[in-house]
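Why should sequence recovery work at all? Because a backbone constrains its sequence more than one might expect. Tight turns favour small or flexible residues, buried strands favour hydrophobic ones, and helices have their own preferences. The token representation captures these environments compactly. In the example below, the structure is given first.
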């Protein structure tokens, strides 16, 4: 017997609803604990639709202990070969706890193997952070969208300074921790840029030399180990911007970065408090 028209309409409505549910599952939140003590912070592993990088993307969201709506947001970009969970260390969570009420919510996006966080042939990695990651994190965490900081390690440090110069009014604070910078296209690591023209479009040292005020009123930070191979290039950027380069003993490795999460978080919390 042929189904009635009302039955067919109800069936189509049900199918549409099921498709909507399946689509929402792409951004389903899975609460989980890191492999280390979170010091009371809540860690959420999320997958979102990310058409700007041709698909979906995982990201990690961290809410400090006692978190509530209206906290500032820190966007933290991982280094080359890392991922959205690379920085979930005991040192990070301890630093968040010690920052107390001033601690920001944190979003750790996924940046691929070596995207260097800029728009390029493999995807619009910079636009993805600005147009997909930040709006999602602000809405999902109920963060204060007027108080946002951006920072990162190595590749992520470069990405933070590159994105912030293109969006000078968006960020209250910008930080590079052992930022992966080069003085010329011929010095760059394989895969960091598509070609010399791509490097030139994202040469933050040259941009700072042309205009040391290109970051507006944002609070700026640069640091690196005394034995870091990027020391000279980071010093050149710091000199162009007329800001200090914080240097401590160490190299370009997690031992160095984990030793200074407390310093990093104090900078972010203080800068965001005065945003």
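From this structural description, the recovered sequence reads:
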């Amino acid at each position: 017997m042929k189904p009635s028209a009302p039955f067919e309409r109800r069936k189509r409505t049900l199918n549409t609803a099921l498709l909507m549910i399946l689509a929402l599952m792409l951004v389903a939140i899975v609460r989980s604990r890191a492999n280390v003590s979170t010091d009371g912070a809540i860690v959420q592993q999320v997958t979102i639709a990310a058409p700007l990088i041709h698909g979906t993307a995982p990201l990690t969201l961290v809410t400090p202990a006692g978190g509530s709506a209206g906290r500032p947001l820190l966007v933290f970009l991982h280094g080359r070969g890392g991922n959205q969970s690379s920085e979930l260390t005991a040192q990070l969570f301890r630093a968040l706890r010690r920052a107390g009420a001033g601690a920001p919510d944190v979003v750790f996006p996924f940046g691929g193997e070596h995207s260097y966080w800029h728009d390029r042939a493999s995807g619009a990695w910079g636009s993805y952070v600005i147009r997909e990651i930040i709006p999602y994190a602000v809405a999902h965490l109920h963060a204060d969208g007027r108080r946002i900081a951006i920072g990162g390690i190595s590749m992520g440090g470069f990405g933070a300074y590159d994105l912030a110069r293109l969006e000078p009014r968006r960020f209250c604070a910008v930080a590079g921790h052992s930022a992966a910078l080069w003085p010329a296209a011929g010095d760059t690591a394989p895969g960091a840029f598509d070609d010399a023209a791509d490097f030139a479009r994202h040469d933050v040292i040259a941009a700072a030399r042309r205009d040391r005020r290109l970051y507006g009123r944002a609070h700026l930070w640069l640091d690196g180990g005394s034995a870091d191979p990027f020391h000279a290039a980071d010093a050149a950027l710091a000199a162009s911007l007329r800001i200090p380069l914080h240097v401590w003993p160490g190299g370009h490795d997690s031992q160095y970065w984990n030793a200074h999460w407390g310093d990093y978080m104090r900078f972010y919390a203080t800068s965001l408090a005065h945003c």
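A few observations help interpret the result. DSSP finds nine helices and eleven strands in the chain.
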